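Good morning,

Both structures are done.
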Amino acid sequence: MLEDDTKLTKRGDTHTYNIAIDGPAGAGKSTIAKKIAARLGFIYVDTGAMYRAMALYFLRNQIDPSDQAKIEEACKDVEITIAYKDGEQIVTLNGENVNGFLRTEEVGNMASTSSVYPFVRLKLVELQRALAKRENVVMDGREIGTYVLPEADLKIFLTASVQKRAGRRWAELKAKGIEEDISEIEKDIRERDHRDMTRTFAPLKQAEDAIYLDSSDLTIDEVIDKIMEYYNKIQNREVGKD
């Protein structure tokens, strides 16, 4: 199966194949994107890890997160990329494997604070686009198909009802022993959707050429199967052009 799915991943000698999966919070984008990437042998671009690597650089250089000028200047000196070695995702910061430093509370807080600056987002978009030019990738987020990779070969807008997304989140928390009011989870999701869709910079919206996929009543495997169907249809059309 894997051989059949991947044999047409390049058109010509230099073309890389890019899959963009966008959608609201809680739609299952990351889970689906990782599994699609594994199925195809593509790189899953963990954009969140890239933000954390950027934050790590700021911390190591003792840059105050409120100092916009220094953060903007520091962005020029950062090179971040993602690769896979022996099945493990390796995030490199200026050539160093920084996997072991990215999941601390300090890095997470810096990532959350610094990511609000447009120039930080623009720098990471530049790096993400460069990676997509070098490698076959699956990338998920809220503005991948519309802004980061507008020329992606396959674009999916993955969504689900607020109720379904809240239910999934509630189940995840319960499995971890955390009790939450599902109505509060629904409220948080609605508020986050509103923020994502109304923000000025690269808001969440479906790209005109993206395939709308509602996962409300689908299992993870069913969603993956549907995306693989779309992928193979596009590949077959490309073969017909040769």
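Second structure follows.
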Amino acid sequence: MMKATVRQQVTVPLRFTDGYTTPARVMTFDGLVDGKEHIALGLGDWQRALTKSAAGGRAPLVRPHSECMTGDVFGSLRCDCGPQLREAVERIAEQGGFLLYLRQEGRGIGLYAKLDAYALQDSGLDTYEANVALGHGEDERDYSAAAQMLFAVGADRVRLLSNNPDKALQLEKCGIDVTQQIPTGVHMSAANVRYLATKATHTSHTIELPLAE
């Protein structure tokens, strides 16, 4: 795999709408395989977490989070992306690690196509069927750049904060040692219950939805 390097680091104080605050060391990169402007956020005592991991201790907690403008920025209830992002930042800050913010909207199909997919979902298709109906793959995300970013910051061993088994498989194929996969919480609403259920049944996401009575 082509090597990427950290091109810049800057500290950014984060503040979420519920008042939670934490500083993040935001890193940009040169040499990413897809040429996109992904960033890594070093959270908590991430340097100590790397040192402990290098000595054979617990690996840093890492979440690769795919950009979702509708959920992350505007608080859309059609998905669980915004709450997952908020949860991940706090959990990683507590333990030391990285959030990789990956510019691959709509499972890699882009923002406009994602909104086209929403329109198809309103007519009855599920989230994966809608992508296919638009001529895309069910999920076009590639985590090669994420692996490059992890190698660049020295995190070749990680505990993965994700419900998606494909993230672990792709990172491991790129040479990242995923020592543990840790599920996020279940952020369910009336607007996203079908979306979450489809992720659980169709692509084996580790999402434990409450059973219907």
